[in-house]
Write a structure and sequence with these properties.
With 210 residues, the protein is an alpha/beta fold. Strands 3-2-1-6-7-8 form a six-stranded parallel sheet, with helices on both faces. A two-stranded antiparallel ribbon has the order 4-5. It starts with a helix and ends in a 10-residue tail after the last helix. The N terminus is likely disordered.
């Protein structure tokens, strides 16, 4: 008995994918779309957002799932638009804004679509209504945000990856989080399987792009 308890404690202290939730916790998901997409792509799988929502809804009282992404509005067809529409109809609160074009010092045309401010504002506004925030991002700029809501008594889980080359999560964000969940360890629960890819190609399902 002592040995098994020891290994359980050791695993929780040193593992990177233990998810600790309580049945009555009010949970909010905050998904940095481009960051999560890049992390999943680096690990070689597509995310099924229907499965992702089901996993976290089973952990407690899922209050809201926010998804953040920028959109290129002047494109005749945007590859992200079908996903945005699907998510909007299937349990996610979409937060979007137009991208901005600019020319860098080398004269190269670039597109900017940072959603950090929108995500931070929503986290702070939702904090009084939540007990546990799950942040799907590895962006180190969110460390202060995580610290701020922790001071309000909320627990914060960060979902990203250290298994990619280079790692997608900033070390300071990982250290600040109450729990860090390795995205690769979630793959069996949230990955889009081949059969689903084939079935949903014509449907624009909640998987794949950003």
């Amino acid at each position: 008995m002592f040995l098994s308890s020891f290994f359980l404690v050791y695993y929780e202290l040193n593992g990177v994918f233990i998810m600790v939730f309580y049945p009555q916790e009010r949970i909010g998901l905050f998904i940095d779309g481009s960051n999560l997409f890049a992390a999943a792509r680096a690990l070689g799988f597509d995310i099924d957002y229907r499965r992702l929502l089901t996993v976290f809804a089973s952990k407690g009282r899922l209050i809201r799932a926010f998804y953040y992404t920028a959109l290129i509005e002047d494109q005749e067809y945007s590859p992200i638009r079908p996903l945005v529409d699907w998510l909007d109809y299937n349990g996610y609160t979409m937060v979007t804004k137009p991208t901005k074009e600019f020319t860098d010092a080398s004269g190269r045309r670039k597109i900017k679509g940072n959603m950090d401010i929108e995500l931070a504002i929503d986290v702070m506004e939702m904090a009084p209504h939540l007990d546990h925030i799950v942040l799907f991002s590895g962006d180190g700029d969110f460390r202060r945000l995580v610290e701020a809501v922790q001071r309000k008594g909320l627990r914060v889980t960060v979902v990203s990856t250290v298994r990619s080359q280079p790692p997608m999560v900033a070390d300071e964000l990982r250290r600040q989080a109450d729990t860090f969940v390795e995205l690769l360890e979630l793959e069996p629960q949230i990955a889009r399987v081949l059969a689903q890819r084939e079935d949903r190609n014509a449907e624009s399902s909640g998987s794949g792009d950003q």
